[in-house]
Design goal:
5-stranded antiparallel β-sheet, alpha+beta, 29% helix, 13 helices
Length: 387
């Protein structure tokens, strides 16, 4: 597994010219981040797993959102959707690729990567690399005294409840999430960024969506296991789940993975994480991750984690939060990994359904409102597909 740590000035220029969150169309770029930034590579499984084909099912022509009937075709067009991959009971019911998508295309996950990092934390805990979720991040990761992760429990960080000062406003070029992204240009390392973040609230009291929390979890995994995220994920997920294609992690100039957003994979391989969790952590008869971890991961176990309580850039969300998984409101027990520009791995265990949607919604981040970001509407569509 080779790490490519050099980035040419031409590649950085290309990266800066992408114009994220400006309304520019991005679908041609989201499979090309491996050309813009350094990366590490996880090779495909030596025994790739291909989902069996089920009875073909057309997507619904329409869905209900906010009291109105909306067109599925129009939504896919407007959000520059490149892939919709639907499983039911582990069988392929629908597979659609558009624009720059394709079965073999590695698409950037953005924050879908957070749910993979959570999975690796669960595996490391089961293997004894992490002693307990009550341990603090600073037990494993060197941080500045009094900074955001000094004395904060792993569980609070998993639940985006670290209390760190953070602004995840994609429409504000001065926000913390933009500063975190700038580390990829070499302004500082990702590890230094984590070590120096400032505290704001008492841990375990407010769920404030914070990409820095996931980067802290990534740093903890590297320290706890003595291995890179790339190496650990390749052994613990890519190989046993039968990933069909190579996967990539974007890395900073020091070689640290961009844990919060830098995973690049195919739609079919993204779906394998959803299918693993739908089956309580089991895969082909093997318990990859403890069932107890899956159960805890997809449960909002405190008042500040319930739907309507998590905060994204000072906007309350109509979703609950678990261990780096989003929890739609309702009684069906759905859960989803979700990233900017409408990337989702959506699981409806009540119907045995897993759906991957990969998109490049051009309006995303031009405001922090639903009418541009369309995250609740995306869930409404996926619920209609599941039904």
């Amino acid at each position: 597994i080779a790490e490519e740590k050099e980035m040419s000035s031409e590649a950085m220029t290309n990266m800066m010219e992408l114009g994220l969150f400006t309304g520019q169309r991005q679908y041609e770029n989201f499979s090309r981040f491996k050309e813009f930034l350094p990366k590490s590579r996880m090779s495909a499984s030596p025994v790739p797993f291909e989902f069996p084909e089920g009875r073909w099912a057309a997507l619904p022509d329409s869905y209900d959102f906010d009291g109105a009937i909306r067109s599925t075709h129009d939504f896919l067009e407007q959000t520059d959707t490149s892939a919709v991959f639907v499983l039911q009971d582990g069988k392929v019911r629908h597979e659609l690729y558009r624009l720059s998508g394709g079965r073999d295309v590695q698409w950037i996950s953005w924050s879908v990567a957070k749910s993979f990092v959570s999975t690796l934390v669960g595996i490391a805990l089961a293997e004894g690399h992490i002693r307990d979720l009550t341990d603090t991040i600073s037990d494993y990761v060197p941080v500045d005294k009094g900074s955001a992760y000094d004395g904060v429990s792993i569980k609070d960080v998993l639940q985006m409840s670290s209390g760190a000062r953070w602004n995840e406003d994609y429409n504000d070029p001065e926000s913390d999430v933009f500063r975190l992204g700038a580390t990829m240009a070499g302004a500082m390392t990702l590890d230094t960024f984590v070590a120096t973040m400032a505290a704001q609230a008492a841990p375990g009291t407010v769920c404030r969506y914070n990409s820095g929390d996931t980067q802290a979890l990534g740093a903890m995994l590297v320290r706890a296991t003595g291995r890179s995220l790339t190496d650990y994920m390749h052994e613990k997920l890519c190989v046993p789940l039968g990933f069909e294609a190579d996967s990539l992690w974007l890395v900073d100039p020091a070689g640290m993975e961009m844990a919060f957003a830098g995973l690049n994979m195919t739609a079919r391989d993204f779906a394998k994480l959803g299918e693993l969790y739908r089956n309580g952590g089991r895969w082909n008869g093997q318990q990859i991750i403890p069932e107890s971890w899956v159960t805890a991961s997809i449960r909002a176990d405190a008042p500040h984690l319930q739907p309507g309580k998590p905060i994204l850039a000072d906007h309350p969300l109509e979703l609950g939060y678990g261990y780096q998984w989003w929890l739609p409101a309702g009684s069906r027990g759905e859960f989803t990994a979700m990233g900017i520009y409408n990337q989702l791995v959506f699981v409806d265990p009540s119907r045995d359904v897993v759906i991957v949607k990969l998109s490049a919604n051009p309006a995303y981040g031009t405001s922090m409102e639903e009418h541009t970001n369309r995250e609740n509407e995306t869930i409404a569509l996926l619920r209609a597909i599941s039904a």
